[in-house]
């Protein structure tokens, strides 16, 4: 048998050891303790007396006999043993112990005892457990991540072949998401070359990128087709990243695959939708560019983001000259109009009245634009501006306004001369004599002179000389003092005093009695009047405008009118022609009278029929304009339709209708140019533009516009 170890000698040998040391008997599976050193006593809390002779299991066996048997089995074969076991101190506290044992062989080579070192490895086990937990947690992240992940080995010798080149390493791991994504399980993939499921001619460029990324190495992000196990494919976003160890050595590559098929489809739908929107926008812009009305889009900061071609043409702008600039920098508006437009642009959604914009174009011609501003339904802060060129309409209105100066309507040569004289005579303060038949509009001319004169803000007093009684005429013209005659109960000013600072209109001056003619002559000469019953004269400042339907020169020769008063009155004179001498004014007069008459009657009457027009033009109108107005009112009352017919006219006008004849045929040749056709139509209708428009089969507005464009009078 082998010599046993002397415990006394062990005590001297092991006492100085810092590690806990024991000697165990391995002659039996119990492995009883034969010796423990002081370090063991300090580690476990057991004294040598308490420990010696006890089996090893009392200290570190999870189950009785487990540790001793394990140690006995290894040591009895003559080999060294290393065990890690949970151990218990005397106070019941646990620790992880590492038992390192070596057999002691006797002379015959048998092992009956063993020397063992016991170390507390609790901290090391805690660190290892924490590391294992962290590893499991990270593996859990990878395993159950929603993205497909593949790990590639970079250390294994040998290079896998990808697409005919040395381009990839073998796969060593795939997660569950990859298996679900591709249909491949780990056994199908592990050990195979990375990229076999990317094969395909459509991925050639992507595979070359992967090749370069793996050979450098470097990170890579790419989009390519990925093929499932069943042969179907989907779009994947590939992220390839190198993995380094703590010594900065490349160990692995991590590949992440994301299924982006839906995203790619959504992007394609978005591209298709964007293309459709671009087409729609181009169509809308094309339509807006064809509109004669101009269109602008103005952003909240005043920047022009769109201008149609017609808008650019109106203002003489080049393409792209307006977009991106503030509207004040683009459009030549005076400060007042620009301020009004700014107020409209800044106003809320309530629709303001259209704004009329005036400016001079590049050639110096005066232009007018009607501007309407609306909110953009897509963005309340953005404004849509619609511009309509109303220059032609404005000029027509001005022309019509000029032909209606003072309420006198007409566009014939005679009436244009009357209107010219009104403007000239209004500049001064001369006395004026207006001559013309009854009903031609003499009082309208007098009002026009007053309204165009510097006295327009003063009073306008109209007196019908023929309507005054001779006994009261002086009192009415010059006023009277209280008690001047029977019934004069108070002081009363006359018409001249009432017109002080303004204009007095003496209608039918030819019917004024001779005594009053002398008094009127003194007023005109001295600018003074004397009230009845007074001796004191009063200064008056009233412009005298007189009118008569008589020939005052004849009246003066026969002694019925003072010649000196005639000379005093007709310093300025206007002769108004009768309506029968200017029948081309009848359409304008009818239009002027028809609208208010229709409104008063509550009817929607548009015009006269062709036969009714023939009656109006054939009649001589002895009552002149006054009779024409009465005729229009009469016809409006009796009309039952949208047009006035012959039967709606007064009887005296209706009987003038000639026998029905066919409508006159155009006198122009079929191949005549437009200017010749317009001139021929005007000549055939004796200058009546409304009738000429009907003859040509076009609206009156279009006819007027073509006259203006062709510069025809």
Written account of the structure:
With 713 residues, the protein is an alpha+beta fold. The chain folds into 5 domains: 7-122, PAS domain (Beta-Lactamase); 145-259, PAS domain (Beta-Lactamase, 2-Layer Sandwich), CATH 3.30.450.20; 293-389, 2-Layer Sandwich (Beta-Lactamase); 422-577, Rossmann fold, CATH 3.40.50; 580-654, Orthogonal Bundle (Helicase, Ruva Protein, domain 3). 40% of the residues lie in helices and 22% in strands. The strands form 8 sheets. The protein has a 5-stranded antiparallel β-sheet with strand order 2-1-5-4-3, sandwiched between helices. A hairpin with a 5-residue loop joins strand 4 and strand 5 (111-120). Helix 15 crosses helix 16 and helix 27 packs across helix 28. It is rod-shaped, with a radius of gyration of 60 Å. Residues 154-168 and 659-672 have low confidence and may be disordered.
Strand proportion, as a percent range, falls in 15-25%
- Percent helix, as a range, is 25-40%
Q: Tell me the span between the first and last alpha carbons.
A: 151 Å
Rg calc: 60 Å
Low-confidence stretches: 154-168, 659-672
Number of domains: 5
CATH class of the largest domain: Alpha Beta
**CATH third-level topology of the largest domain:** Rossmann fold
DSSP strand tally: 28
For the biggest sheet, the summary is: 5 strands, antiparallel
Name of the CATH homologous superfamily of the largest domain: P-loop containing nucleotide triphosphate hydrolases
Q: In terms of structural class, how would the helical and strand content be classed? A: alpha+beta
The CATH architecture term of the largest domain is 3-Layer(aba) Sandwich
Mean pLDDT: 78
The number of helical segments is 28
State the shape: rod-shaped
Order of strands in the sheet with most strands: 2-1-5-4-3
